[in-house]
Amino acid sequence: MLDKFDKTRNFSTEAEILKVLGHPIRLKIVAGLCTNECNVKHIWECLQLPQATVSQHLALLKNKGIIEGKRDGVEVHYSVIHPLARKLIASLMEG
């Protein structure tokens, strides 16, 4: 049965994305950003979490290449840029 698995693919990128999205707060952030680009204030108000907590999660998501921030004056608007993260969220939302 194991001979049917793809032996050439190591899935390290996929595993890393799954690990980062494995935290409920980060999963909520990415799910929200898949529908709307928004700033950090809007995110922490929606999640009812301290700004510092949300900022830490955003920094990790940004460092892993899942989201990006675009500056608009004094605000930074975040959006999901990693296609696998978008696919995973879409799949989760279907169920």
TrEMBL record:
Pfam family, one: HTH_5
KW Transcription regulation (keyword) present: yes
Keyword hit for Acetylation: no
CDD domains named in the record: HTH_ARSR
Record keywords: DNA-binding, Transcription, Transcription regulation
Stated name of the protein: Transcriptional repressor PagR
Domain HTH arsR-type stretches: 6-95
